[in-house]
Amino acid sequence: MSQPTLHELHRPLGSTGLMVSPLGLGTVKLGRDQGVKYPNGFQIPGDEEARMLLKLARDMGINLIDTAPAYGHSEERLGPLLRDQRQDWVIVSKVGEEFANGQSSHDFSAAHTRLSVERSLKRLETDFIDLVLVHSDGNDLAILNDSEVYATLAELKREGKIRGFGFSGKTVEGGLKALEQGDCAMVTYNLNELNEKAVIDYAAAHGKAILVKKALASGHVCLSPGVDPVRASFELLFEHPGVASAIVGTINPLHLAHNVATVAKVLRRN
Question: What's the CA gap between 221 and 104, in Å, rounded?
Fold first, then answer.
């Protein structure tokens, strides 16, 4: 029996005009192995291994890739790895968080937002980024109300350097506020953490996009014996019409194939 794929299951990313696979590939593990909350340690893969992982993802119908300046060398590696494949990918990156010498820092000023996007364009070797999200430090409302980051992203969108923008936050209030002017919210939503459902409800009612982070609770979900936690997680996500895609970061080809097969089964059953 052939491996199920996601090619026919692409769906709209809110009102952006972009079509995305219901599963996106998170790439923190391509560039950063310090200060990450995973249950097991891992080794950053070499170029050949990373290239094969990206090819496998593409062959299985994944067209959405998620990166960020805070993911260490992820953007710099993706530029050459995705060379000549730009038309095959919807690229999501971020602004606001930097990671250096094992420490995170945040800057939501207009100058840094523009600098960050221009730098991401160079690193990713592209003329535009499909979606740029604000990498919140948790002070969601303060960032949206008091900083220039959203206004600057709106300018960059008008200039054609990004196609859409939004917010990867940590609170319901932040997610709701972010969707008023933005195109997308990235929310935490999984079997352990359901409180940001209100943001997904709002997005579904207003034609906005939702990307889900920590869909598998970063590998921490534990259920009763005999229940596949991956399937249960994706069933929860995709029963909500507001969810466009779940971003799952893996560098394990078997995990990737299992995730794709599970999402395909869940969506085809629905």
Answer: 26
Say which of 38, 71, 189, 202 is annotated catalytic: 71
- Residue 105 falls within a domain, yes or no? yes
Domain that holds residue 120: 7-269
> What is the C-alpha separation between 21 and 26, in angstroms, rounded?
13
Burial (Cβ within 10 Å: 0-12, 13-18, ≥19) of residue 145: exposed
The b-or-e profile of 149-166 (16+ CB within 10 A means b, else e) is bbebbeebbeeebbbbbb
Write out pLDDT tens, residues 50-89. 999 999 999 999 999 999 999 999 999 999 999 999 999 9
pTM, two decimal places: 0.96
Is residue 54 within 8 Å of 42, Cβ to Cβ?
no
For residue 191, tell me if it sits in a domain.
yes
Is there a catalytic annotation at residue 71?
yes
In contact, 30 and 78? CB cutoff 8 Å: yes
Q: Which CATH number do you get for residue 74?
A: 3.20.20.100
Buried b (16+ CB within 10 A) or exposed e, 32-48: beeeeeeeeeeebbeee
Using DSSP, state whether 134 is helix, strand or coil.
strand
Question: Residues 220, 192: contact at Cβ < 8 Å?
Answer: yes
User: Would you say residue 131 lies in a domain?
Assistant: yes
Domain count, the chain: 1
Any domain includes 152: yes
Closest CA to 167 of 96, 114, 220: 96
